[in-house]
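Re: beginner question about structure tokens

> Can someone show what the tokenized structure looks like for a real chain? I only ever see the sequence side.

Sure, here's an example I had lying around. Input first:
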Amino acid sequence: MLFGLLINFCILFTFAVLSYWPFQNVTRSNFPFPKALPYIIGILGGLAGFILMETSVELSETIRVDARHIIIVISGIFGGPIAPIVSGLIIGLSRMLMTDVFTASGLLVGSTMIFIGIVIGAFSFKYPMTFKNAHYYFYYATVQVVLLLTYLIYQSSENYFHIIYFIFFSAFSFFMVLFILIELRDHFKKIRHIELLSETDYLTGLYNYRKFHELTNSLITDSTRPFSMISIDIDYFKKVNDTHGHPVGDEVLKELGKLLKKLVSIGDGFAARNGGEQFAVLLPNAPPAVGLDMGEKIRSMIEKTDFTISSNQHINITVSIGVSSFPDNGTTIHEIYGAANEAMFEAKATGRNRVFHYTNKKT
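And the corresponding structure tokens:
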């Protein structure tokens, strides 16, 4: 019996882990049909439940122990309200059809599985299932099955001690799997945090130069559409640090980062800090005129903004902006980036607080 329960648990555990990856962590898996996920998880849960029933442990002629009801709960954690309904329906119908002849006990058990799936799904619409509240749904499903077992044992005059086996096995299986899944979730959160640190600037939260380089390369690879790059440098930023101190300068950089992120997100662009007081913006699907227009919007907005720092001081800054465009000003990242920087230096040389496109540079 112990070996049979172990096999049943391993099947449950395998389903839970495989469902976590890739369905629970969709940001990493990029699953192409997100709306179909609940149904897919429900179907997989139903198939896993069928396998669990095929490997269930027979305690008596009428009592078999397995983790099929736990599968319905796990489906709800991963797939939302639809998944437990689908898995409960598949498991219930499978139980009814497992024998050549319909039996009263088979119909009763199968109907109970369908009912559990519907109830869990219905409540999940109002109270979405999470790792924190999943145990309540498990308690309900277990109580429902215990009531069914009690009735079956009463009808067949079996030993009620079988219920203790079922409760112990269910509790061990569910909470062990839940513990592992929570550990996996925390593990992937830490990995994602490390990934974010490797691609973002620690001060502003914008992309760093490395990530900006990757994004630019990806746009160059898709060379069928033009794009523009904007290079931004704060005018006389050294005076801000010398007058107010570097902590104040850092606050200005943070606020500027927030402003840039808000502005470029409207045009589906990307903002990055490339070091010091230098920033850059990448605008996909943007020909030269669009890049120049966005550069002017950025310059004008920064000029009009009062940057409020923690000491309630208001600091005004201006920026010099250079714009380059692909493929007009280059076909490699070094050419595009170099052209944007040259245009930015031209903006500084011609009076600062202005926008200059590399195409207008006199040779």
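Each token stands for a local structural state, so reading them left to right follows the chain. Residues 161-199 form the longest helix (39 residues).
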